[in-house]
Specification:
The chain has 283 residues and is α+β, with helices and mostly antiparallel strands. It is built from 8 helices and 19 strands. It starts with a strand and ends with a strand.
Length: 283
């Protein structure tokens, strides 16, 4: 199942080149009063909603995919946890290129740890990236993103995949400079998630996916998640040893070698096997 959010906060199932509107199923979630929950209610209830989503899709209106504005597939992520330098070749390029490390100490992930990215940075591919601090280098970083489906704390890596609601493509946009990562990676629109949420049955083994991005048709990054230093299960285990993970939380698994700058007017096209592809405009 591939689940998207689009246009005016509508929800659809993606089949071939069409979106089937299943928005009425959201009424099953009820209404929430103050204080609001710390999790995404749709993601938390996704398993039980699947039969109703499938039934709604059979009678839902089909809209051509190229006629909708795709939003981030998770409406309310409680937190976004990101893994830096989680590909060995990216570590090597970061150490070699001052334009990337900017004088900062660069460590591989076991020493660097993970970092948090502001949820206010989240947009969908149809919303695009709006660059800030354009006097500096602004880079694309394409990544496999996973979405937590149920509460997880101190999870064993061997059981971690059972806690995943689905996967999407993530763009961890980055301003280069001397400040802490979280500051430089958290401006509005600097976390693109999309094009939809692909459930685990669609994706299979997350450790064997090809991840790539082009800018204006020029190949930039192209690698396999088999090259991750810490795999998906290990990242969930490590993250859940520090934080309680809630439904809707997102983990960005790290970017491979080939990161590079973008400028206003550019078009990025990111793709991950068995998930799909998304086109994102830069302004």
């Amino acid at each position: 199942m591939k689940i998207c959010r689009y246009d005016d906060q509508r929800v659809g199932l993606v089949q071939d080149s069409a979106v089937l509107d299943v928005t009425p199923v959201l009424e099953e979630l009820g209404r929430f009063g103050y204080p609001l929950p710390k999790y995404d209610p749709f993601i938390a209830n996704l398993q039980s909603l699947k039969p109703k989503l499938e039934a709604a899709a059979r009678r839902g209106k089909a809209i051509p995919l190229d006629q909708v504005k795709l939003l981030a597939p998770v409406a309310n992520p409680g937190k976004i946890i990101a893994a830096p330098v989680n590909y060995a070749k990216h570590l090597q390029e970061a150490l070699a290129d001052k334009g990337i490390h900017h004088g900062n100490l660069v460590n591989e992930i076991h020493k660097a740890g993970m970092f948090l990215k502001a949820t206010s940075a989240v947009v969908g591919p149809g919303e695009g990236v709006k660059l800030v601090h354009t006097d500096r280098r602004n880079d694309h970083e394409v990544e496999l993103a996973l979405v937590i489906g149920r509460t997880a704390k101190n999870v064993n890596a061997a059981a971690a995949l059972d806690y995943i609601a689905g996967y999407c493509i993530g763009l961890d946009m980055t301003i280069r400079g001397p400040e802490e990562r979280s500051l430089r990676k958290s401006p509005d629109s600097y976390c693109v998630l999309g094009p939809w949420l692909a459930t685990p049955d669609e994706v299979g083994d997350p450790g064997s996916l090809q991840v790539s991005i082009t800018v204006n048709g020029e190949p930039r990054q192209d690698a396999s998640t088999s090259d991750l230093i810490l795999g998906v299960g290990e990242l969930i285990a490590w993250g859940s040893s520090f934080y309680t993970l809630h439904p809707g939380d997102v983990i960005l698994t790290g970017t491979p070698q080939g990161v590079g700058p973008v400028k206003p007017g550019d078009t990025m096209r990111a793709r991950i096997d068995r998930i799909g592809a998304m086109q994102v405009r830069v302004s």
